[in-house]
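Sequence design from tokenized structure. All designs in this work follow the same two-part layout: the structure record, then the generated sequence. An example of the structure record is given first.
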């Protein structure tokens, strides 16, 4: 059964001005059409930005604790609808139901965290260098923010971006990935039901070229927050520079799990399966490189082959499924092309092909795949594949391990399995990534610590936690002089060294 969905502009659910539509289909079964959505364009974006601009004064002047109360209500509503949203997510983008529930939970966690910020949102008060003068820095809302989100976390990531933006007093125009518009529309319906006023959040569905670019180039949009491919991030940053926007980019990863010779292999195997094949490997944080001490490489590979061979591919709504589909057939082709490259570069241990047996033929599936005995500089060990493919690279020394960990262009997540406390601390110091794990895989970041990476993973910003408040607010430093006379900073003070 397919449904017709609309854009949300200024509190009204409306079609695209052009009347054009596109469809979203389930990656587990392409015959299952999830819905029809507006194929919007720049005119729709203009209307959405105008609505957000009009809603800004009232929303930004509402006391932040009141905005927080609305977010608490939103959090509770999301929790009540968790199962429904999770099922829609699995249907629309494929991840298994347990993981879809985790995705919705992540948005709930951020909603609660940011709701609480309504009563904190700490600024800074510092002593002035002058007598009878007060000094502080406060956070101010910025204005209309543009949010462009990916399909792999279709509820969590919109929540990561929207909730801090809203608690800081901004209004938003948001565009979902073309593969997951239903998740976005349903999520936003719940936010509206929770009491977010008309015009504070506006949703425009459509392509990156038509809708994304119009948001990025709009002169009244002051901030862009984007998660997606590195090339798109560079393009967005370049376009946004013309209107001097603040831009936060969360881009690719090529995340290593390092397995040292003293590691607990049972724990490693559980963690590798979860980190490499969860969400069919389609997380920015997925473990796609397994740097394994040569002394245990062969044992590790053989045990991993057994575990991977038992993974059941299928529709994520079925309890028996371990690994769902990938997002679409273009993804299957891209992963297959990397598998072909991998066959020349390394030893194929298991998988390596699209999966088309039985019911799988109706969807976009790829076999969980392991390559072994690869070099650290192989393309499959350097480039982001974004699918259920992990490459094992044997390592001999700690120095070589650090070099290989840091040899990729990305720097999102890294993990080390060892019982050696000294190596554990060295990994935290020396692995050049924004997230570091010890005796835990590369996925599973929590909502209240900064999320993001180094190098080509982004442009230096961090999401969620306190860091998100810094991104979505403007500092204003305030000086109140109650001396009643002219006091010149840096001039009228006597410094200790001057007697
Ligand atoms: C992403 O893949 O872009 O740590 C986000 C994790 C999740 C978030 C992933 N909490 O894997």
């Amino acid at each position: 059964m397919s449904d017709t969905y609309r854009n949300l502009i200024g509190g009204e659910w409306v079609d695209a001005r052009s009347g054009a539509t596109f469809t979203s289909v389930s990656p587990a079964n392409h015959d299952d059409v999830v819905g029809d959505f507006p194929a919007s364009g720049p005119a729709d974006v203009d209307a959405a930005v105008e609505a957000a601009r009009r809603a800004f004064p009232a929303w930004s002047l509402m006391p932040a604790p009141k905005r927080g109360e609305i977010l608490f209500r939103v959090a509770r509503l999301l929790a009540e609808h968790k199962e429904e949203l999770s099922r829609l997510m699995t249907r629309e983008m494929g991840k298994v139901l347990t993981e879809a529930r985790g995705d919705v939970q992540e948005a709930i966690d951020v909603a609660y965290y940011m709701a609480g910020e309504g009563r904190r949102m700490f600024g800074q008060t510092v002593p002035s260098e002058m007598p009878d003068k007060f000094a502080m820095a406060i956070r101010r809302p910025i204005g209309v923010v543009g949010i462009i989100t990916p399909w792999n976390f279709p509820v969590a990531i919109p929540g990561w971006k929207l909730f801090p933006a809203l608690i800081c007093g901004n209004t938003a125009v948001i565009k979902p990935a073309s593969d997951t518009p239903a998740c976005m529309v349903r999520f936003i319906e719940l936010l509206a039901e929770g009491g977010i006023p008309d015009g504070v959040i506006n949703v425009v569905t459509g392509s990156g070229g038509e809708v994304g670019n119009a948001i990025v180039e709009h002169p009244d949009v002051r901030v862009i927050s984007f998660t997606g491919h590195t090339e798109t991030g560079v393009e967005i940053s370049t376009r946004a520079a013309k209107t001097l926007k603040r831009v936060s980019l969360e881009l690719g990863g090529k995340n290593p799990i390092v397995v040292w010779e003293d590691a607990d292999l049972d724990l490693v195997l559980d963690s590798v399966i979860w980190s490499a094949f969860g969400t069919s490997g389609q997380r920015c944080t997925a473990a796609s490189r397994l740097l394994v001490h040569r002394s245990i490489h062969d044992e590790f590979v053989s045990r991993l082959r057994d575990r991977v061979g038992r993974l059941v591919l299928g529709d994520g709504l079925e309890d028996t499924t371990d690994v769902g589909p990938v997002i679409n057939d273009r993804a299957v082709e891209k992963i297959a092309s990397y598998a072909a490259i991998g066959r020349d570069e390394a030893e194929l241990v298991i998988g390596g092909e699209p999966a088309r047996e039985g019911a799988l033929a109706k969807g976009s599936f790829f076999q969980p795949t392991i390559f072994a005995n690869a070099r650290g500089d192989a393309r499959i060990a350097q480039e982001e594949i974004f699918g259920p493919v992990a490459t094992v690279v044997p390592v001999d020394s700690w120095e070589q391990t650090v070099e290989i960990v840091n040899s990729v262009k990305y720097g999102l997540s890294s993990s080390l399995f060892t019982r050696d406390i000294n190596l554990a601390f060295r990994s935290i110091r020396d692995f050049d990534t924004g997230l570091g794990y010890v005796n835990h895989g590369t996925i599973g970041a929590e909502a209240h610590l900064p999320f993001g990476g180094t190098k080509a993973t982004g442009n230096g910003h961090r999401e969620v936690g306190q860091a998100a408040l810094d991104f979505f607010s403007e500092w204003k430093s305030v000086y109140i002089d109650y001396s009643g006379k002219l006091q010149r900073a840096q001039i009228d003070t006597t410094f200790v060294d001057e007697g």
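The radius of gyration is 24 Å. We note this feature because it recurs in several other targets discussed in the main text.
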